[in-house]
Amino acid sequence: MGVINPWFRKIRIFFAGPDRNFCQDALARQRQCWERACLQLRFFYGALLYLAAGRIAHWSVETARAVADPLWPVLWLRWVKDSCGIGAILILHLVGALCAVGFPQKFWARALAFLGLLEYGAFNNSFGKIGHSEHGWILAGFVLMFLPARTNGSREPEARKNRQVFLHIFWTAQASVLLTYSMAGWSKIGGALLQCVRGEPSLFSFDALSRHIAARLLETGVNSAWGPWLIAHPWVGWPALWGVVYVQAFSFWAAFRPRLRAVWALLLVLFHLASFFAMDIFFAQAILLLSVLYLPEGQDGVFPKRWERLLPVVGDLLWSWQGLRREAPVRVRSR
């Protein structure tokens, strides 16, 4: 650990940027952060129960589906009757979420909730197409499964250590979800660079968003509220597209900047809403996940004071510019 800690500290300082002092001061606010994280944990499993219970109305339709190509977590469906196996997955999903809501401090309850999530997600993607509406939930549910048990009755040093481990694991769950957005953003940039080398239209093209919306609407055969207008006005879509790419690419940075996490979650929610109005792509589950994992951290308002100075790259430049201005010598004009 003596070798790992210095490197981890350097990585944390790099990603935290202007918010590094706020991170270092977390020990003084440990109990407050821990209490809020416990509340967010209940929000997470409460939202999971809402999703699982909302699917009860479709159980008859789900159990009638024939699984042609089951993914590895539900490979066992090949050896049981489809209706029985799918029914068992749906019940496990509901019971696991219910147990986690009632006993979020118990490992077995969180493990049952994760198993139900994994099985339902694998079943839902075993029909020839992989969607990622459940991936964030599965990833966060897996990490949260390893939260330590509460030790309220123990001595304060032990309780403090327990709270710190709890906060580290909870933060890892938050960071893992934001990492998926960064992976999506940087993959868009990498793909665009490859298209530029090939001489193809890319993300850097002025009409990139218009082309993407038109291709999506033609592929699905649907219409959207903003799609036709954005196709006709590419000068609006180009900066909006790069704004989305910036938010996605630097989402992982926001995980290291506590005062920025709620801001970033709201920006990602707006991105999902805009995707629906522009291309009829709706990720209600992702919006719910962002809302329960990050938005409660903005208790005094989602946007803290001078939040723009916490923005990745942009905020670092603003802080550097402010520092240079303070260090610059004051010139006195001679009369």
Structural notes for this entry:
The chain is mostly helical and 335 residues long. It has a domain of 164 residues. 67% of the residues lie in helices and 0% in strands. The chain has 15 helices and no strands. The relative contact order is 0.10. Keywords: Membrane, Transmembrane, Transmembrane helix. It comes from Candidatus Methylacidithermus pantelleriae.
Helix content: 55-70%
Number of strands: 0
The N- to C-terminal Cα distance equals 63 Å
Element string (H = helix, E = strand): HHHHHHHHHHHHHHH
Strand composition percent = under 5%
Largest sheet: none
Task: Let me know the average pLDDT.
Answer: 86
Keywords: Membrane, Transmembrane, Transmembrane helix
Organism: Candidatus Methylacidithermus pantelleriae
Protein name: HTTM domain-containing protein
Short key terms for the protein model shown above:
335 residues; mainly alpha; 15 helices; flat
Brief write-up:
The chain has a domain at 4-19 and 180-327. 67% of the residues lie in helices and 0% in strands. The chain has 15 helices and no strands.
Mind sketching the topology for me?
Layout: H1 4-16, H2 20-24, H3 30-54, H4 59-63, H5 82-102, H6 107-124, H7 135-144, H8 156-198, H9 208-220, H10 227-232, H11 234-249, H12 251-255, H13 258-279, H14 284-293, H15 314-327
